[in-house]
């Protein structure tokens, strides 16, 4: 059976001397790999002691990148309440609500502007037809 890695262990290995990364509920030892990472060491260090799945998938890593993982595997991550593997960090919903509201306001304006132009056009036709 695969080794279970606890959240405490994940946190212990969160610096350049020893670094574990949590991806898809599995823990990888990337200590030796970070210097070779084409994306640089900082982006990986930023994912220490948290769920790096989203960051990793957002980049759209190649199959070659994924193949590297199997040699780095430490074990399965032991799920805890402290760190939901779906990511408690996935940006706060209040924030995205504000963005949604802004987008909605923008689209209201997108309807209003062409309608106003149309209204102005018919008003112009109405008045100019009277004078011809
Ligand atoms: C242990 C996990 C990781 C492995 C094995 C890995 C491996 C690789 C490899 C092989 C590439 C070259 C392009 C490709 O083949 O897809 C790459 C690129 C990249 N990686 Fe990772 N990576 C890991 C984790 C991460 C994380 C957590 C991030 C966080 C954002 C990240 C960000 C990037 C970026 C931004 C590039 C693009 C670099 C460029 O094209 O300039 N990687 N990675």
Automatic annotation (TrEMBL):
Listed GO CC annotations: endoplasmic reticulum membrane
PROSITE patterns from the UniProt entry: CYTOCHROME_B5_1, CYTOCHROME_B5_2
UniProt keyword annotation of Nucleotidyltransferase present: no
GO terms, molecular function: heme binding; metal ion binding
Domain (Cytochrome b5 heme-binding): residue spans on this chain: 2-78
Record localization: Endoplasmic reticulum membrane; Microsome membrane
InterPro entries, per database record: Cyt_B5-like_heme/steroid-bd (IPR001199), Cyt_B5-like_heme/steroid_sf (IPR036400), Cyt_B5_heme-BS (IPR018506), Cytochrome_b5 (IPR050668)
Principal location: endoplasmic reticulum
Region forming the signal peptide: none
Coiled-coil regions, chain positions: none
Top-rank lineage group of the source organism: Eukaryota
Keywords linked to the UniProt accession: Electron transport, Endoplasmic reticulum, Heme, Iron, Membrane, Metal-binding, Microsome, Transmembrane, Transport
Membrane topology field: Single-pass membrane protein
Pfam families given in the database record: Cyt-b5
Family: Belongs to the cytochrome b5 family.
Protein name per its UniProtKB record: Cytochrome b5
Organism the protein comes from: Dichomitus squalens
């Amino acid at each position: 059976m695969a080794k279970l890695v606890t959240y405490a262990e994940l946190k212990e290995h969160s610096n350049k001397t020893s670094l574990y990364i949590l991806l898809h509920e599995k823990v990888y030892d990337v200590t030796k790999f970070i210097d070779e990472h084409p994306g640089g060491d900082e982006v990986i260090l930023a994912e220490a002691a948290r769920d790096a799945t989203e960051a990793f998938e957002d980049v759209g890593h190649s199959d070659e990148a994924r193949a590297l993982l199997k040699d780095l595997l430490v074990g399965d991550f032991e799920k805890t309440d402290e760190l939901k593997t779906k990511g408690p960090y996935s940006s706060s919903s209040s924030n995205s609500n504000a963005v949604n509201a802004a987008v909605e306001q923008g689209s209201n304006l997108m309807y209003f502007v062409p309608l106003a132009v149309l209204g102005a056009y018919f008003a112009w036709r109405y008045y100019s037809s009277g004078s011809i």
